[in-house]
Write a structure and sequence with these properties.
The protein has 183 residues and is of the alpha/beta class. The chain has helices spanning 9-21, 61-73, 101-115, 125-134, 148-154, 157-167, and strands at residues 44-48, 79-82, 119-123, 144-145. The chain has a single domain (3-88, 98-169), classed as 3-Layer(aba) Sandwich (Uracil-DNA Glycosylase, subunit E). It is built from six helices and four strands; from the N terminus they run αβαβαβαβαα. α4 links the parallel β3 and β4 (144-145).
């Protein structure tokens, strides 16, 4: 899908979301309140490796820590995505890439073509390595932040905001203690 063939970013992204959602077992980050999830069209991509097999209801501890922190730092319109869209076991990609990995990589490249991110941030070491190895056309650093599941599992919720502010350049974030309503 070429972004030029579709009128605007929202429509192009919606078309891509529909394509991904039509596949059995594939998943996208949902929107919630001001958090746009996969439909975020801001300059920052936040990328996970692969969605887990578990459900992710609004009250899920991982969702709460991730979405609530994104709101605090002003990344409500960040594009939230996974490199590999099909649900699987945690860190399954660390054990070798599945035969259809190239298809997922091409979908991710489509997301990049549509939105032209200024910054790609990896959710953990595995996806950072996969992005660096497979996105050779991306010629700037890909920083990584703690994966939200690590934060929830280790009780680091109170440190997550500071960690994100340390890793992501200030130009993409709102100043600490400022309202996020403007984004």
């Amino acid at each position: 899908m070429a972004a030029a063939s579709i009128g605007n970013k929202r429509d192009a992204l919606r078309e891509l979301a529909d394509e991904i959602s039509s596949r059995e077992g594939w998943w996208l980050f949902p929107s919630e309140g001001s958090i746009q999830g996969f439909m975020g069209r801001g300059p920052v991509f936040i990328v996970g490796d692969q969605p887990s097999l578990s459900e992710w209801p609004p009250e899920h501890p991982c969702r709460r820590v991730f979405y609530d922190t994104l709101k605090k730092v002003g990344l409500t319109n960040a594009h939230l995505t996974d490199l590999y869209k099909k649900r699987g076991l945690p860190s399954a990609l660390a054990n070798g890439l599945p035969p259809d990995f190239t298809e997922h990589l091409n979908l991710f490249r489509n997301e990049m073509e549509i939105l032209k991110p200024k910054l790609i941030v990896a959710l953990g070491e595995l996806v950072q390595r996969l992005l660096i190895q497979n996105l050779t056309e991306w010629d700037i650093a890909i920083p990584r932040i703690w994966h939200f599941s690590y934060v929830a599992r280790t009780g680091r919720e109170s440190k997550y905001e500071a960690h994100i502010r340390e890793i992501i350049p200030d130009t993409f974030l709102i100043p600490k203690n400022q309202s996020t309503d403007w984004r």
